[in-house]
Amino acid sequence: MPEAKTRKAAARDKRQGKAPSTQAGEYVHEEIEHVREGKHGARSAKQAIAIGLSKARRAGVKVPAKKSASKATRKKAAQDERAAKHPHKTSAKRSRATKTALKREGHSAASHESLAKQGKRAAAKRSSSSRSAAAKKGARTKSAAQRSAAAKKAAKTRAARRRA
What we know:
With 164 residues, the chain is mainly alpha-helical. The protein has 2 domains: 4-125, no CATH class; 128-164. It is built from 8 helices and no strands. It has helices at residues 4-15, 20-36, 45-58, 71-85, 92-103, 112-124, 128-140, 144-163. Helix 2 crosses helix 3. It is globular. The termini are far apart.
């Protein structure tokens, strides 16, 4: 069950007219936090993200499955969307089994390194024009103060990388 603050944050994103992927991002962040704080583990960064997306769909966020998604992924997404329409308590046995299995996994899946690696892999699959368009859209939807803060953060990161 997602935490109340996550549901509120996703609802706020929806009210602000943000994309479903942004709304779902709140659930993904929550999942990454759970792995980091040792609530359970994950086999990979991809799995942690998938769990977050599944939670988002079950909470009613309309995140479509990617066009390139496998048949199994599409099926799971459809199943999650159906579950959102008819919410009911998860079977205690199944919930316990899942949690026990995840507890056996490691916590490095939510490390900054593995998440960065996953992000780079995902970005590499996209065309440069697609990445550029996303960056331009990101800049368009930011206020002057947000753009300034982002620029300062980027400069700080560049400086830190030069020193390293």
